[in-house]
């Protein structure tokens, strides 16, 4: 049985099966990337509910695994060097799991490069821009009277949707076959409904994007990943 005693996070969120991957997450767009990947690969894992409140993500136990105080994070008890390893940052986790399993990361160097570039596009563009639009449309930023911040993210959000729609022309998935890039991108498209900005961005005008999201949401592993761990404890 794996020894996870070197990870203080396991004191607050104990492992029922230390031999399984331990996921510390919440069903946000970034969180469901990893739960979906774990479901798609069939890896054994336990999902621990870590809320976005400071009492959880700023707790000493969580910070001991992820000093950036953001979900998701995980512990793989069967690390590549034969010892448990902790990983944080959703994109890094997806790359790690793709490498570990040989799944959804590309079958050769060319495919891996194509997938990685779209993963980085999501990490550096789509996620941050949509997240800021959500802040200025649904959360505290919506109280700011100056319209310029929201207009900036609307403009950039529309541009990014157009980029994605064009790239999807003639193919089901963004990098050819279904991959970690799709697991990263599609949850952020789904978040537009939660933020209440779908009409604002004109997503319905991006037919390839709409069909793409529908394909993603129809996958059984995705349907499980979207509610893992459950939002309510």
In helices, the fraction of residues equals: 40-55%
Q: What series of H and E elements makes up the topology?
A: HEHEHHEEHHHHHHH
Q: Largest sheet, if any? A: 4 strands, mixed
The CATH architecture of the largest domain can be named as: Up-down Bundle
Instruction: Give the rounded overall mean pLDDT.
Output: 96
**Cα separation of the termini:** 28 Å
Q: Please count the helical segments.
A: 11
Strand % is 5-15%
Sheet/helix structural class? alpha+beta
Assembly state of the chains shown: single chain
Estimate nothing, just give the exact number of structural domains: 2
Shape assignment: globular
In words, what does this structure look like?
The protein is α+β, with helices and mostly antiparallel strands and 233 residues long. The protein folds into two domains: 9-104, Glutaredoxin (3-Layer(aba) Sandwich), CATH 3.40.30; 109-219, Up-down Bundle (Glutathione S-transferase Yfyf (Class Pi), Chain A, domain 2). Helices cover 54% and strands 8% of the residues. It has eleven helices and four strands. It has helices at 9-12, 29-41, 54-57, 60-65, 90-101, 109-137, 148-167, 180-195, 198-201, 207-217, 220-225; strands spanning 21-25, 45-49, 73-76, 85-88. Strands 2-1-3-4 form a four-stranded mixed beta sheet, with helices on one face. A hairpin with an 8-residue loop joins β3 and β4. α2 packs parallel to α5 (90-101). The two termini are 28 Å apart. The mean pLDDT is 96. Its EC number is 2.5.1.18. InterPro entries: Glutathione-S-Trfase_C-like, Glutathione-S-Trfase_C_sf, Glutathione_S-Trfase, Glutathione_S-Trfase_N, Thioredoxin-like_sf. This is Glutathione S-transferase. It is an enzyme of class 2 (transferase). Keywords: Transferase.
């Amino acid at each position: 049985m794996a020894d996870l005693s070197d990870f203080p996070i396991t004191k607050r969120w104990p492992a029922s099966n230390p031999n399984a991957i331990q996921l510390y997450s919440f069903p946000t767009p970034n969180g469901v990337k990893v739960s979906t990947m774990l479901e798609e690969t069939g890896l054994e894992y336990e999902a621990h509910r870590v809320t976005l409140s400071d009492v959880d993500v700023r707790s000493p136990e969580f910070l001991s695994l992820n000093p950036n105080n953001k979900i998701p994070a995980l512990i793989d008890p069967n690390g590549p060097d034969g010892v448990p390893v902790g990983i944080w940052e959703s994109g890094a986790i997806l790359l790690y799991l793709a490498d570990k399993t040989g799944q959804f990361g590309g079958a050769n160097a060319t495919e891996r490069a194509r997938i990685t570039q779209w993963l980085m596009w999501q990490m550096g563009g789509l996620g941050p821009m949509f997240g800021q639009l959500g802040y200025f449309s649904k959360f505290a930023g919506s109280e700011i009277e100056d319209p310029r911040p929201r207009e900036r993210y609307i403009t950039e959000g529309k541009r990014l949707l157009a980029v994605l729609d064009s790239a999807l022309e003639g193919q089901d998935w963004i990098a050819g076959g279904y991959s970690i890039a799709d697991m990263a991108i599609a949850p952020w498209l789904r978040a537009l409904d939660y933020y209440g900005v779908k009409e604002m961005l004109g997503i319905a005008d991006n037919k390839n994007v709409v069909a793409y999201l529908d394909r993603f949401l129809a996958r059984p592993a995705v349907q499980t990943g979207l509610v893992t761990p459950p939002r309510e404890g």
